[in-house]
Amino acid sequence: MPGQPDVFFLPSALPKEVTESSKPLEGLDITFEQFTNEEGKPRARNMHVKPPGRKNLPPPPLVPMGGLPPPPGIPSRQQAKSDSMKVVVGTVHNFDVAKNFGFIKADGFSSDIFFQRLELPTDLRETQSKEQVVGQLVEFELKTMPDGKLRARRIIVLKKGGTAMGPRTRGRIRQYLQDKGYGFIDCDFAEKVFFLRSSLPKAYNDATESELKDLEVSFELYEKEPGKPRANAVEVLSEERRSSDGDFEAPNLPDGEVTTGEIVSFEAAKGYGFVKADSGGEDIFFLRSEMPSDIQGAQSKDEVIRRRVEFEVKVMPDGKMRAQRMMLLDDDRGPQGDDTENKSDIEEDLIQQMTDYLADKGNGCEYGAFTRTFRNVKKKTLQKHFDVMMDQGNKFPQRIELPMGHPQRVDVEDADMKSQEEDEAGVARDDMDLQDDDMVPQQPDEAEEDANAKADDYIDPNEPSIPMDQKGVMALGVVRTYDAAKGWGFIRVEGLDQDVFFPRKALPLTFHGTDVSQMPELVGVQASFDYNPSGRGGPRTDQLNLLLRWVQDDKCWILRRGKIPPKSSK
Asked: For 116-120, which contacts have Cβ atoms below 8 Å and span 24 or more sequence positions?
């Protein structure tokens, strides 16, 4: 750049074809994005070899670390807003299949950029292979969260190789002349960006104007002649079209905005509810399928209302807003009406009931089992009277106990403590399962199941014995205990004198998570499994299937639960 100081760059900013070439780099014409690092020094990123015949564009303005300038040298129909969408290119370098998130490296950013599985393209969203995601060259929208952290949204995979014409941005197809083979795109930085049919994906080469108009696209933005912006390497982001009639009022929040709020209503039978955004405005509709996995199976509104969530706003063609990709923020609930706003503590009788409950459980129990018994009590209120143990990330409560020195705390010798906790864990989970049975509404077919269970007690003396060592034959039992953090558990089979051990790998892939707060409770779930009576240390299985049942009201499958059989005395 004549008349300007030299700009430093790292080898990682160079295109692959240059780094693999043995030719000298001096004198090579390139295009690049310029930014300032954390020390305020100019740096170059996203470097590309300038194709022959392309005019030099004025250098982009310096921007702070983490910010992206608008494409340089492009006539703008309006001054770009400070909160305009930022489009970044990077490479996925990490993806956790079990935890459903990963990280992207991008030039010019000092830290990796977080993304969720739901932000991946449709063809990668359900993959169970880390290798299919890691290493992909991707483009994404950069979102700065309220805590200042960066997040990647609406990711698309780019083709590797080739020479980039300019920086990438996003817009919508304004016009397409099929007979002439070209069209125009509108974006934040330019209107009527020219594109050729050849720059479209092959699947759209024969598309008509009605099929392309208003489609949201991503593309490289450059100039072949001054004042004539062009698009190259066009990728279709979404086939949903923005309404063009203009009859509806502008939404409270823009399409694609990620914000936070509180769930204010939920119809469990119908599978939908409304969330109130912290920024105010009208309540926003959501479907059960978009709810956080922790509460997606909720059967009552009490389990959902007042939960704090993060969500993405989707503006529908009729102008109404919808909440998508909801994430649970924490376990605390907001105030529910004026009558509870000033209620800072709980009654002494209730505290005594809670104390007796914990004492009966051997001084403590799992937090989830406790809150299912004593509902609608804030964690902060419980912490005034009991010890609440959090997970490693200090986000989700795991266990609640009577404080050390409490008069009702059971004194146990240290040598016997571990064995007692292990013995009582199964009892506590059995009790929790019975409590759940009392709280869940009676299903129409439960009476029939009870009758069938009684019929199972009778065994026809002519019933043949079935060998287990054959394909298609599996044993049936109920998960007695499972530790997601340690990765093992036991299945209880009625009449069998030993519980059956299973490791994490025996479970279906979607249940391989190690974060207890993100995993559904497996205790009490019915399961079929391959039975190996000669495993090291006792019976074992390395293949386990979790049984499901159909919920007609919600039109969905949920885990099928049953009572844990008593341990055989034989």
From this structure: 116/325, 116/327, 118/325, 119/152, 119/153, 119/154, 119/155, 120/155
Residues 6 or more apart in contact with residue 465 via CB below 8 angstroms: none
pTM, to two decimals: 0.36
The tokens describing 537, both together, are 């240390």
Amino acid 204 reads: Y
Kindly state whether residue 33 falls inside one of the protein's structural domains: yes
Judged on CB neighbours under 10 Å (0-12, 13-18, 19+), 474 is: middle
Using a 10 angstrom Cβ sphere, with 0-12 exposed, 13-18 middle and 19 or more buried, the burial of residue 4 is exposed
- Count CA atoms closer than 13 A to 420's CA, side-chain side: 14
- CA 370 to chain centroid: 26
Render pLDDT for 215-260 as a digit per residue (tens, 0 to 9): 889 988 888 787 788 988 899 886 655 544 433 334 467 777 888 8
Q: Which two tokens stand for residue 499?
A: 């519980």
Task: Return d(Cα 502, Cα 229) in angstroms, integer.
Answer: 61
Alpha carbon of residue 228 to chain centroid: 41
Same domain, 270 and 229: no
* 45 closest CA partner among 35, 56, 57: 35
Residue type, 264: V
Q: Are 377 and 344 in contact (CB under 8 A)?
A: no
Q: How far is CA 106 from CA 12, 88, 129, in A?
A: 10, 7, 22
Q: Give me the number of domains the chain comprises.
A: 4
Could you read off the pLDDT of 72-123 as tens digits, one per residue?
444 444 444 434 468 888 999 999 988 888 999 988 888 899 998 888 888 8
How far apart (Å, rounded) are the C-alpha atoms in residues 137 and 287? 32
Are 70 and 119 within one domain? yes
CB-based contact 201:236 (threshold 8 Å): yes
CATH code of 276's domain: 2.40.50.140
Q: Can you tell me the distance from the alpha carbon of 505 to that of 227, in angstroms, rounded to the nearest whole number?
A: 60
For 177, residues 6+ apart whose C-beta sits below 8 A from its C-beta are: 183, 209
Q: What is the DSSP letter of 444?
A: T
What DSSP string describes 29-67?
A: -EEEEEEE-TTS-EEEEEEEEPPTTPPPPPPPPP--TT-
**Residue 397 is encoded by which pair of tokens?**
């409560």
Query: Is the Cβ–Cβ distance between 193 and 224 less than 8 Å?
Result: no
Residue 371: its H or E element: helix 367-373
Instruction: Print the domain residue range for 131.
Output: 1-242
* Distance from chain centroid for Cα 557: 20
